[in-house]
Amino acid sequence: MSSSEHPTSETSNAVVGSSATEDAFTNPGPEEHSYRITDTEPEAAKRSERQVAILFSVSIIGTLLFIVSYFVFTPGATMASIRMSTLMLGLGTGIAFFAIGIAAVHWGKTLMPDRELSEDRHQLAGSDEDQAVALEIIRQGKEESGIARRSLIRNSMIAALALVPLPAILVFRDLGPLPGRVMHHTMWRKGVRLAKDSGGVPEHPALIRASDVTEGSVFHVIPEDLHKSDEPLDDKAKAAVLVMRLEPDQLHVSKGRENWNYNGIVAYSKICTHVGCPVALYEHRTHHLLCPCHQSTFDVTHECKVIFGPAKRPLPQLPITVDSEGYLVARSDFQAPVGPSFWEMNH
């Protein structure tokens, strides 16, 4: 067959292009708009407006529930009180935010314009003309949403949004004390006996004799009179101590700390100086204390100085001795603020 009998590739492309042009369809535009009942019946619109306002009011009730629960259901030393406090605070927060979300969705679906619009793309320039157009769009949005003329929705929304941040303020307050010298002082003082931490707040804690602390052992310790505190959990968090025994010649004692240990028995704060996690891992062979949160490592033989990890300063040491009955007692409070190094900045 001759070449004239076969169409060239250029001819084929032209045919395909022509066919595609002929088969192209016309843009039908947006579908016909279906009006909602709230668009055609003023009474239905009013009813929907009241429903939105009620939902915002429910949010206000949820916020008030959180605030009241915060003061009424104070978590105590029992798990039941902690669970009740958590339940009521979570219930109040959930109602407050959930009701606002439902109100916004219901408002948008029943009262705000739902007509589809199409706009041509244009360059994003900051000319005066464009700014005027933007302001006009905002004005139209205000008018179309009805926020200007629907005072019931507007006022209830403003009240709900004004109150809903209050629980966050109370929660942030519980993250810890404000900057100051609060972490410089604990329940430890001269003559306070060291007691084993059994996990609760016993009225008759098990005291610790120097003879009870053998090399390689580690004791989690609290003040003997912790149960007399008005806020035992908070005071325990600051006063928690680890006690262990080394050979006296293994300790590198700095000047002024010669009598802070008793025959190789040393006591250090249990609170990591990084972000306050409990230091609870003791390596007997290396005499290292490890924080499980971020792996800060402290050398007990060198007064718990930091040898690894993000912590910036040693664990504070509690000066100890023994009383006339052989029980371990504190010589004084910590000589440095316990906890994260943030508190060291507030001398």
Automatic annotation (TrEMBL):
What's this chain's function?
Answer: Iron-sulfur subunit of the cytochrome bc1 complex, an essential component of the respiratory electron transport chain required for ATP synthesis. The bc1 complex catalyzes the oxidation of menaquinol and the reduction of cytochrome c in the respiratory chain. The bc1 complex operates through a Q-cycle mechanism that couples electron transfer to generation of the proton gradient that drives ATP synthesis.
Which family does the record claim for this protein? Belongs to the Rieske iron-sulfur protein family.
| UniProt entry keywords in alphabetical sequence | 2Fe-2S, Cell membrane, Disulfide bond, Electron transport, Iron, Iron-sulfur, Membrane, Metal-binding, Oxidoreductase, Respiratory chain, Transmembrane, Transmembrane helix, Transport
Q: Which PROSITE patterns match?
A: RIESKE
Q: Polar residues: which segments have biased composition?
A: 1-21
Where does the record place the region Disordered?
1-43
- Where found? Cell membrane
| GO CC annotation, single | plasma membrane
Molecular-function annotations in GO: 2 iron, 2 sulfur cluster binding; metal ion binding; monooxygenase activity; oxidoreductase activity, acting on paired donors, with incorporation or reduction of molecular oxygen
Q: Which PANTHER family match?
A: CYTOCHROME B-C1 COMPLEX SUBUNIT RIESKE, MITOCHONDRIAL
Q: Which domain of life is it from?
A: Bacteria
Q: What is the topology of this protein in the membrane according to its UniProt annotation? A: Multi-pass membrane protein
What's the name of the protein? Cytochrome bc1 complex Rieske iron-sulfur subunit
Compositionally biased tracts (Basic and acidic residues): 30-43
